[in-house]
Amino acid sequence: MVPERIFGAATRHDGDPDRVAVLLPGRGYVPARPLLHFAGAVLRRHGWSVREVWWQSPATQDAGELAGWVMEQARQALDGERAERLLLVGKSLGTFAAPLAAERGLPAIWLTPLLRHEAVVEALRRAGAPTLLVGGSADKLWDGEAARGLGHPYLEVPGADHGLEAFEDPVRSVEILRDVTAEMDRFVAGLRS
Length: 193
Prior knowledge:
Strand content: 15-25%
Shape: globular
Low-confidence stretches: none
Number of strands: 9
Radius of gyration: 15 Å
């Protein structure tokens, strides 16, 4: 069960009840962090309802176990919604839900997807719904060649790390956040039809 408030902030933001976006965090990247916060802001701007999923991931480092756990969390969140249109946004660990998005034909925004994990890449190959990939060239878990070969729109940020930030350059990090937010805005605007 998702709490209604975390640290006094709402975890659900109501917009159009027939369009709901579910935000899946990373291992240590909660929905209040900038990338997910602005993903939610973009979606709300375009009228979507937004449900933030907050979790404490298992301590295991086993990718298979983590992937299964994320899939279950995502499945529960999606199954709790009655909207006609659903969309997934996942950051890092949350991108282990890519097979679920592909299976259900859901549009998705994957921030720093785990492109070094074949299950994620294979799911992205199968994805038929609009899908946006965003990663940084300095992220060891991003594979630019794989991203380019998947046939989905993508944004590869030169020099950005796994947090989509520029190491020791906060001004450049804010510029990256602006660019990523603008790309998400273009993507979501294109979903209107």
